[in-house]
Amino acid sequence: MExxxxxxxxxxxxxxxxxKLRALExxxxxxxxxxxxxxxxxxxxxxxxxxxxxxxTQSTANDQKKISFKEAHELLLSEGVITQxxxxxxxxxxxxxxxxxxxxxxxxxxxxxxANLGEQDLxxxxxxxxxxxxxxxxxxxLRKNIEEKMMDKSFCFELSxxxxxxxxxxxxxxxxxxxxxxxxxxxxxxxxxxxxATNEIIRRIPHEVMxxxxxxxxxxxxxxxxxxxxxxxxxxxxxxxxxxxxxxxYIMRISYRTALRWYKKWSENHKK
Length: 272
Known about the structure:
mainly alpha; 10 helices
């Protein structure tokens, strides 16, 4: 007998592609955010050394002291290089990068058999973080805006080979992300068609059949998780009512594979 295992399923092809897409985007976010932080810090520090915009003292020691990213960030804000809104956006992207680096499960939990866990509140009262599909484009735009405004304010830039070192990986990831997005969107479109068709099938099942089956009722399963005679009878009634295996899987809260096996058994009984 098949076991009733609503959560004991494997990851679907669509879910796997979504997770692959997210993984590649998250790698880019990690690099882009850290690279932007380094760019801001190094640019402010080299400008401080060459043009002394931070302070006007003549102390050599003070001139050579490097300032932190936090100080550089505050300077850009005070100098009008970035707006308050852009400052908040930068902080948001840094926080998102930290979530990726330290609590990645918070932005993958919504995919898979245990996606319902993403609806729960955390012990600290916070909600589970949602994956940000626009983060890559957002941080790229933010970098471009900050760089242009720093140039307008005559900031000096320090040459770095980090971007060149990451170039091959970046181009590969961007190309693969584009491919995966098209594949995921195509799968979603097909899935929507299937969902609409399945909903229509479920709507056509007579009410008396649904009342007799009583989906989710304990009578349909045994203590060991296998289907009881009542559960088996209920599934056969659904197939008699022209329900598809996918519709039965949804109604009886079982995997599609399990519903398909029961459909084959039902078909064999009808051939006798």
